Amino acid sequence: MANARRLEVVFWLCTLLPFVLTPNYLSLASQIAITALFALSLDLILGYAGIVSLGHAAFFGVGAYVAGLIAKHYWTEPISGLLIAGVLTGLLGYALSHIVVRFRHLALIMLTMGFGLLIAEAANSAHDLTGGADGLQGFRVPGVLGFKFDMFGRTAYAYSLGLLFFCFLICRRIIRSPFGLALRGIRENATRMPAIGAPSLSHLRKAYTMAAVVAGLAGAALTQTTSTVSLETLSFGRSADVLVILILGGAGRLYGGLIGAIVYMVARDQFSGINPQYWYFWIGLLLVAVVMFLPNGILGGFSKFLKPKN
Length: 310
Description:
Elements: H1 2-14, H2 18-21, H3 26-46, H4 57-73, H5 78-100, H6 105-125, H7 127-130, E1 143-144, E2 147-148, H8 154-175, H9 178-188, H10 200-226, H11 236-249, H12 255-274, H13 279-293, H14 297-306
Antiparallel strand pairs: 1-2
Helix pairs in contact: 3-8, 3-10, 3-11, 3-12, 4-5, 4-6, 4-10, 5-10, 8-10, 9-10, 11-12, 11-14, 12-13, 12-14
C-alpha cells in the first residue's frame, strides 16, 4: 500500500514536468490530459460495470457543443460553461441509460454505436445550430481565472490537468465506495447481485450517468482550450480511439486510462510525424503487441511485474 501511494505521488508529480522539460509541447500535453479524462469516463462503465460502449463520443461531443454554444451566444467564462455542459450531458446519459442498461454483449455494442451515430447525424443536420460539417465557429474562450488560453498551451494544460486530477479523485472515491464494489459484482454476475440487495439496473443507470458527466466535462474542456468544435468530437472514430486507449492501458484500474492516453497520444504524434498517411498501421501494431504480450494492458503487466513472488 505504501509503495502504491508513493507511485501515485510520483505519477502526479511527473505530470508537472512538461511545464519545465517540454514547454513547446504543452498543447499536446493538454490534449493528453483531456483524452485521459475521456478514457476515465469510459473506464467507469467498461472497466467497473461491464458496459461496452462504441458510442461514448456522443457525450464527449455534446459537452463540446454545449460549451461552444454557451461561449458563442452567452458568455465566455469557462468554469460555469463546463458545469452546464456536465449537467446536460448527465441528463442525456440518464435518459439513454434506461434503454442501454437493459442489454448486454453484442446488442449493447450495437445499441451504443447506434445512439452515437444518431447524435452525430443530428448535429450534422442542425447546421444553423452546430455549423454542420463546417463546425461551430465564431467564438473564443479567452482564458480562465485571469490566465489567457494562448498558443503556447501553458494555461490550457494547467486547466486540463487540474480538471483531470479533480475528476480522478471523485471517480476513485466512487469506485472505492460500497457502490463501486456493487458495480464490480454486477460486472461479474448481474443476475445474482439483486439477491443480496444490490439493484443492478439502478446501479448501472447511475454509473452510466456519471460516465456521461465526466465525458461531457472532457469535451467541454477541449472546446474551451482550443476554441473550436467539429463533428469529429461526435465521431465513431473517437469512440473507437478511447476504447483502444483503455485496452492499451488496462481497463478497470482508473490509472489504466491515464497511462493508455499518454502512450496512445504520444505514439500518434510520433507516428503521424514519421508517416502521415500510414500512422494507423503502427498504432494497430502497437495494439496487437499489447494484447498478445500484456493481455491486461500496460498497467496490468506492470502490476504483475511488481507483484512479490513467494
